[in-house]
């Protein structure tokens, strides 16, 4: 049997070009890379100038031609979007070809269907690049941390928004200008709304949650708030109070719910969150991501590194190709999969109702600049059993005052009821910000 492995790339953009560049320069890397032949590449526009030198005869505008090419053993999907990416992945599986993909939106929505088809066909679908860019987090969750009962996975898992928030905090940079820089650097999704509205992070926490807790959750039910409406004054106030603001994704196991005894309830959310300056996530800046995994018996481990960009993401894609290449060299495909690498679901999980979950909160009210308003807000929180850590008036003028409250951990249902009641208090004009707080 030939030891050479034919690679078909679907996409030659930021990630695809990074993958091609690694495959073209095997010297000094793992020797298996020299056995990989890049035989076919699908693009949308054959005439576009590419950042790497290529034999143009391997380019095609037909992704189906890449999947169906008998010289292609492994299909690498780095084109993005849901369709036709999903159909092409399923087509490759049906043809008995393993797939490597960086596409979190497809995996978060169709991961179960794809995994079932791959298991039936005896092929792998590997997704290291779908979460955390170059950070190894998928394989550690599938393999190295397999002995643990995971309690919580949390972190900064979108490079674009972390880059924007870092530059806003460090330089007072303009949001739209920094977003354009993130696009130019190849960090942002084709539609950057996926980044700034928190949707990309929600896709990624859905994937991490499935691996950490053993079962899929309803991607569309994840509470998701992005940074597009975050105001720079909240970043400034957070700084004054000793915090940074990060787009934080969290998946946490909860106490079993008697009405769902056979399924594990999970609190899963994505939202801008105040992170205390001495917290390990506070120093994660720029395009870097970090994922904290908390489990028994390991305690807490943090995975840190570049969360987006051509080289780091290609590093993760090629690692997956090498995993498949290594197994192929060990034994020819016989339909039996390595259960750790294939990672199928082993438990039922469901999203807990947000009202039943709890967190610390940062809220900012606009009020009249009048005596007694802070006292009335404080009493109203107390009446709803919301314990306050700090309440400060940060700006006051004839036009009004700004009151910022940080709570202790409190049920989201209690918090919503308190905010509704505070809205009706005389002198309270509006609730202008509500963020999470670690
Ligand atoms: P990109 O720069 O927009 O590249 C997409 C590539 O796919 C382009 O080469 C495009 O062709 C090709 N393409 C798109 N639709 C096609 C179609 N219907 N037929 C043939 N070719 C098609 O995207 P990217 O940033 O590399 O991202 C690719 C995937 O990786 C996405 O799923 C993304 O979420 C994921 N990802 C990206 C990063 C990152 O840092 N960028 C990190 C992790 C994961 P043309 O070049 O001719 O337009
Ligand atoms: N747009 C994504 C991000 C790419 O900024 O994190 C990496 O998945």
Quick recap:
The chain has 438 residues and is an alpha/beta fold. Helix content is 34%, strand content 28%. It starts with a strand and ends with a strand.
Structure description:
Helices cover 34% and strands 28% of the residues. A hairpin with a 2-residue loop joins strand 15 and strand 16. The strands form two sheets. Strands 7, 8, 9, 10, 11, 12, 13, 14, 15, 16, 17 and 18 form a twelve-stranded mixed beta sheet that branches. The mean pLDDT is 95. The chain is elongated. The protein folds into three domains: 166 residues, Rossmann fold, CATH 3.40.50.720; 168 residues, Dihydrodipicolinate Reductase, domain 2 (2-Layer Sandwich), CATH 3.30.360.10; 82 residues, ACT domain (Alpha-Beta Plaits), CATH 3.30.70. Helix 1 packs across helix 11, helix 6 crosses helix 7 and helix 13 runs antiparallel to helix 14. The site of L-homoserine (HSE) has 11 residues, from helix 6.
- Total domains, how many? 3
Helix content: 25-40%
Bound molecules: NADP nicotinamide-adenine-dinucleotide phosphate, L-homoserine
Largest sheet: 12 strands, mixed
CA distance, first residue to last residue? 55 Å
Total beta strand runs: 18
What's the pLDDT, averaged over the residues? 95
Which structural class is indicated by helix and strand composition?
alpha/beta
- Gyration radius, in Å: 24 Å
What would you give as the CATH superfamily of the largest domain? Dihydrodipicolinate Reductase, domain 2
User: Low-confidence parts, pLDDT < 50 over ≥5 residues?
Assistant: none
CATH fold-level topology of the largest domain: Dihydrodipicolinate Reductase, domain 2
**What is the overall shape?**
elongated
> What's the CATH architecture name of the largest domain?
2-Layer Sandwich
Q: What share of residues are in beta strands? A: 25-35%
Under CATH at level 1, the class of the largest domain stands as: Alpha Beta
What is the overall number of helices? Answer: 14
